[in-house]
Amino acid sequence: MKEYENYIENEIKKRKIKVLFVCLGNICRSPMAEFIFKDMINKKGLNDKFIVKSVATSYEEIGNDIHYGAKEKLTQKNIPFTKRKATIITAEDYNNYDFIIGMEESNIKNIKRIVGEDFDNKISKLLDYSDNPRDIADPWYTGNFEITYNDIVEGCNGLINYLIKL
């Protein structure tokens, strides 16, 4: 029996943690979180432990690349990113991801509207992992990508610290 338990523990350790970042349009906050988080785990030598993606809760920006303000901020902070197209969350994503992380309360409501009830407690806000839980403002509306960047870094640091303890 002990042999089987060790086998299961080793299989769990081999499995990648799947993180899905979510915002309204998938052109500002969630792709920034995706690329910031990927950069952080890469610098810690943990990229082989994670699958990271970002999506929208709205069809408004589907197919569009990252907002130019987000690209400018990521470039300014030396965070690598790739050209991409905004996509929308699906009900299947609930089963395919371990953590579904929205940027603000309205994202959480929309995520639940799309995926259904959160029976496994997978859905949270990014700054729930920080010492100061709150919403991350949408820079598409505020124009302030610096504040959004700083909030996302704060949340990603908290998330990594939480996941390392698992």
Would you mind describing this structure in some detail?
With 166 residues, the protein is of the alpha/beta class. It has one domain: Response regulator (Rossmann fold). 46% of the residues lie in helices and 13% in strands. The chain has 7 helices and 4 strands, in the order αβαβααβαβαα. The protein has a 4-stranded parallel β-sheet with strand order 2-1-3-4, sandwiched between helices. Helix 5 (105-115) links the parallel strand 3 (99-102) and strand 4. Helix 2 (29-43) packs across helix 7 (145-164). The longest helix has 20 residues, at 145-164. The model has no long low-confidence stretch (mean pLDDT 93).
What is this entry, summarized?
The protein is α/β, with parallel strands linked by helices. 46% of the residues lie in helices and 13% in strands.
From the structure above, extract its key features:
single chain, 166 residues, alpha/beta, Rossmann fold, four-stranded parallel sheet
